[in-house]
Write a structure and sequence with these properties.
Number of strands: 5
Strand content: 25-35%
Distance between the termini: 52 Å
Largest sheet: 5 strands, mixed
Helix content: 10-25%
Structural class: mainly beta
Length: 70
């Protein structure tokens, strides 16, 4: 039996009993756009690592969108 894992996504607290990767999380929340950056525990995380990183207790994940303007 897996323990419940608490993590934070875009400032909100979530819980899971499953092992999930960053890619799984983004797919669950329907983030399919390539126009964002992922911050993982206060560091920018390169897209090629998302499938490898398992969400752990108290991880902080933020989706940073790119906005143009003038």
């Amino acid at each position: 039996m897996l323990n419940q894992v608490t993590f934070f996504f875009n400032g909100e607290e979530y819980f899971t009993n499953k092992e999930i990767t960053l890619t799984d999380l983004l797919e669950y929340f329907d983030y399919h756009s390539s126009i964002f950056v992922l911050e993982y525990n206060n560091f920018i995380c390169h897209k090629n690592k998302w499938q490898e990183i398992q969400i752990q207790k108290n991880d902080k994940i933020e989706v940073i969108t790119i906005v143009g303007g003038g």
